Amino acid sequence: MTTAPQNTSAQHSRSDVAGNGPLLEVKDLHVEFRTKHGVAQAINGLNFTLEAGETLAILGESGSGKSVTAQTIMGILDMPPGHIAGGEIRYRGQDLLAMKPEQRRRLRGVSISMIFQDALSSLNPVLPVGWQIAEMFRVHQKMRRRPARQRAIELMRRVGIPAAERRVGDYPHQFSGGMRQRIMIAMAIALNPDVLIADEPTTALDVTVQAQVMRLLKELQTENNMGLILITHDLGVVADVADKIAVMYAGRVMEAADVYDIYARPGHPYTQGLLESLPRIDAAGERLNAIPGLPPSLTDMPPGCPFSPRCPYATDLCRSELPGLLPIVAEHTSACHFRDDMYRGRLQTPEEAQA
Amino acid sequence: MTGYIIRRLLQFIPVVIVATLIVYAMVFLMPGDPIRALSGDRPMSEQVQDRLREQYNLNDPFLIQYGKYMWGVFTQGDFGTTFQGRPVLDIIQQGLPVTLTLAAVAFCFQAIIGAIAGILAAVYKDSFIDRFVQVSLVVAVALPTLAIAFLLQLTFGLNLGWFPIAGTRDGMVSYILPGIVLAAVSTGIVARMLRSELIEALQSDYVRTATAKGMKRSRVVTRHGLRNSLIPVVTFLGADLATMMGGAIVVESVFNMPGLGGQVFRSIQAQENTIVVGIVTLMVLFYVVVNLLVDLLYAVLDPRIRYE
Amino acid sequence: MTELNKAHTVVPAGDPAPSPAPKASAQKDASLWMDTWRSLLRNPWFVVSATLLVMLIAVALFPQLFTDHNPRDCPLSRSRQEPSAEHWFGTDIQGCDYYTRVIYGAGNSMAVGVIVTLSILVLGSLLGLLAAYFGGWVDAVLMRLTDLIFAIPYMLGALVFLAARQERSVWDVAFILIVFTWPTMARLMRGSVLAVINNDYVTAARALGAGPLTIMRRHIIPNSLGPVVGYAAVYTGVIIGAEATLTFLGVGLQLPAISWGLQLNDAQSYLQQMPHLLTFPLIFVALTVFAFTTMGEALRDALDPKSKKR
């Protein structure tokens, strides 16, 4: 899989950004959308870090800013209306947001690459899939047509496409959904990136295919020691694959922790709500607990904690003061005023407290 | 694919037959006696008139006349002879190069200028270039061909004297103004079509993917955006080529060019029916063949289309 | 399509309980038209072309309001004058006041344009609707028929037909233009109906037992006519251009009719000596065609959300 010429040139293109620090670090990121109807604050002070070989799941409802996060890291956010209002995104210590556009472009697809949700619309419908994969080698490594095509076939074989050499000239619409997503993955890992961002990679797929695609991603990650950011709204997907979880709500991280810890002892009422809304096999027959209400409008954020209007434990403090993302124990942070009580299961609703 | 082509060709047969039949009927059932028109003021003996009638099958029932004519066209490439005895094919061969050159100039103009304008407007959407292109397009599409023709004749021909305003004596230079006139409306349509298609393509998921792959903006636009947006534009250009023959009638008349369009116009007025029918048959065939080619081209450009 | 469709999905045909729903739908309809109107007023092209059009229509209907001269009062003594304070557009070969001639020329052009457009709008929409709704052989026959007419360049067909007529009135010119242009309208309507007919609300209406007439009237026509109407306005401009061209070529209207095409025809022989004879009718033809096409485009943008690719 890793042949010599490919490795050297990949390293060559990365040498100019070699630095120290974590693989990827997002610090106090703010992204807004400036529209006619006002400014929508999509991301409000996002923080997380990702190390090589680690899988971070970013979990959230639609509109929580998780896809915007991915697009901002990739540098493919539509600007305007998008606007980066502040913060840093450091890749191996270098701030991506301060880079020259050309320097940043050379990182895209080479060091940081991305898989999209809908492979059918994300692959070019009028170009053969082999061509689209080979384009990575041809553009970034100046490879000639034939060897690039050969590499594309190898990649297609690696991601589990049967009869790859026969199908290399086929078009996206001639593949099944799962196969298309595998092609998308092949394209994203073609140049052995350090960071792979997968934006809802399995949402559009059948349940049986979902598991296969997730397994493939996991395998490839281990093989290449990639940092994987898995963006999803599906708690079920997360549990199997992720090492760390960051729960996003209204453009903020509400809670971030090790995957086992967060499932066992959520440190934020929102996370708790999400977990309780999952159907459980050991609780058959009981009603699902949906979180009441809707996420706040991004153009009109409530003061204080953004979850307070829907939080059963909310107090006046919550409604007036924004809690910071602070540690409860090591490696477990939460943006709740009552994070300690929550974590230890001692938190009571105001009614319970009255009684 | 072969099956599709054969089926399309078979479908075209009735179209060609009925279309030519209609024109044939309109031409030969017109009031007025072409033989008498031919003789003009000179007296012509009854025998001569009868011989001419016999020679041009004018005594046969109408459908037989038509059948004999079409048989000649499709078996021997014989488009008949004029009443003066000159083969119509001769006249066609004389006018065809002029009309084809005119069509080629117009086609190049609308393809190149239309594409450049459309791409610039889409890539620099909402900028000054975009506004400028849009305003010019509204004007170009809205003005009638006749107005554009005279406008160019007056400004660039008479006032500035840059281009000849009539005939084809000056070689390629004399084709420039007529070519622009013939192309004007379609240039506007091409540019507008390409603009909106490209804007849509540039907002698509696959273009976002290409950007995420680290491709340069120029490559994203040309290889990924343009490749998709060109499909309807190329189809339009092809279909437009087929209708250019009609436009050539007006343009060749205004610029007094010795092409098929001007020829057919003069022949209609002179009641030279055989020439009219010959040229019209050729135009209908041209239309039908070009349209078939456009359909096939469409399948080549868009792999999602498969003709069964 | 979506906005238009939604307004009509509110009340499926055969709704057993027409309680507050119809009222809501009526209000939505009204606001839909208000939306269209407001978006039209925001479009500068629409404002310019509509103003122009109102003026041109006034000129066509009441030419005597715009000039004191009689268009047929042509003393040869004052022929071939350059534009002056007295004769704004100069005088022509016969000595007629050219401004008056041009003003009186509007009527015939507009008449042909309006007759043809209204006819093909009715004829084309009806045939297109039938073809799309019933499909099968109705559709096949109609489509072959349009193929047929498209295969003959319309300019050619009109030339052949009109050259054969000794006397040509507005109606002759209109007739031949109708014959050669209705297929465009029919195809447009067919496409527009096909886009609507597979929507769930049509299926729903059918499942609820609504008959073809009800479905066409309540669901299909309101939702598919928008783009067709816009196009019809564009087409009026095209038709007026075609009439001027045919007349210019000598196979359209004849003297003593007053028409821009005839004026252009006369003027072409004096292109070098008296360009103003060409310029003034040309400006009017161009303005009229421009006004119709531009307003049609604006209407199409406003009525057909699909074309709003901005």
Describe this structure in words.
The complex is a heterotrimer of chains A (355), B (308) and C (310). Chain A folds into two domains: 3-242, 3-Layer(aba) Sandwich (Rossmann fold), CATH 3.40.50; 249-354, no CATH class. Chain A contains 15 helices and twelve strands. Chain A has helices at 4-15, 66-74, 101-107, 119-122, 129-140, 145-158, 164-167, 177-189, 207-224, 235-241, 259-264, 269-276, 316-320, 339-343, 350-354; strands spanning 24-35, 38-50, 55-59, 82-91, 94-95, 112-115, 195-199, 227-232, 244-249, 252-258, 326-329, 332-334. Chain B is mainly α and 308 residues long. Helices cover 78% and strands 0% of the residues of chain B. The longest helix of chain B is centred in the C-terminal third of the chain and has 38 residues, at 217-254. Chain B is flat. Chain C has 310 residues and is an all-alpha fold. Chain C has one domain (42-303): Orthogonal Bundle (MetI-like fold), CATH 1.10.3720. In chain C, 72% of the residues lie in helices and 0% in strands. Chain C contains eleven helices and no strands. Chain C is elongated. Residues 1-28 of chain C have low confidence and may be disordered. At the B-C interface, α1, α6, α7, α8 and α10 of B face α5, α6, α9 and α11 of C.
